[in-house]
Amino acid sequence: MIKLTDVSFSYNQKTILSNFSSAFSSPEHWAILGPSGCGKTTLLSLMGGILSPSSGQIETNGRISFCFQEDRLLPWYTVLQNVMLAADNTLPKAKRFEHARFWLDRVGLFAEQNAYPASLSGGMKRRAALARALCFDSEILLLDEPFRALDDALHLQMRSLVLDAAKNKLLILVTHDERDAQGMNTLRLAEKQHIF
Question: Nearest-CA neighbor of 125 among 148, 96, 102?
Answer without folding.
Answer: 148
